[in-house]
Amino acid sequence: MNQTTKAALLVVSVLMLGGGAALAGGADEHGHPEGRPEGRPAAGVRPAAGPRPGVGGPRPAFDGRGQVLDQRYNHGHYYPPMGTVMPSLPSGYRPYYRGRDRYYFNGGIWYAPRGPGFVVVRPPSGLVISVLPPYYTTVWLGGNPYYYADNVYYTWQPDQNGYAVVDPPDDADQPSAPPDSPQSAPDDLIIYPKNGQSKDQQAADQFECHSWAKNQTGFDPTQPAGGVPPGDADRSRNNYNRAMSACLQGRGYQVN
Question: What average pLDDT score do residues 174-187 get?
């Protein structure tokens, strides 16, 4: 066999081996899903059209961290499911006590100690917080405002100057519209929302400020003569108006 023939056979062998390798690589890519990352289309293949996350269509029931979407009253915020165990508490939590039991609150989520970690729980009724969670929904039930977040209801307690955890009201499935002219707004106070507060929120704030001002001064403008002796009505009404104005201004309203 001369040198020319040997060279030709060598070239043919190389070409045959290269073709077999290419065929093997093609089988791994197209015949087995593990040939590319899950969800990634093959080269030259466009994914089917469809709504992108957050663009049209309903919001998913779970987010990427396994949190559940709370859709009650169109609340629209994600929370870890009840019973979820966390290895540690988030920063910025506040401790609360009921007898010997401890609870921790942060971002609308309540935790209780369990073993070396902390479990997401529903708090017992009666715990009072000074500030509502950053995400809450105002719900009017039976003519009164409730504040809702993560399956927990809160109501304003003027005697404690805070918001108490309460049991779900009997008419929780029958919310109503806020009153158009709440009795908590005296006729001689003109109130403007400076921070874009909704109608529901303004009605609730006026209701709560009325409760607080009434508790502080003993004057109730919804009662004849304010519910105080006639000779004390003017002074008590002025005190009430000052308390009402201070409360509303602290909640972001202009009061004239």
Answer: 65
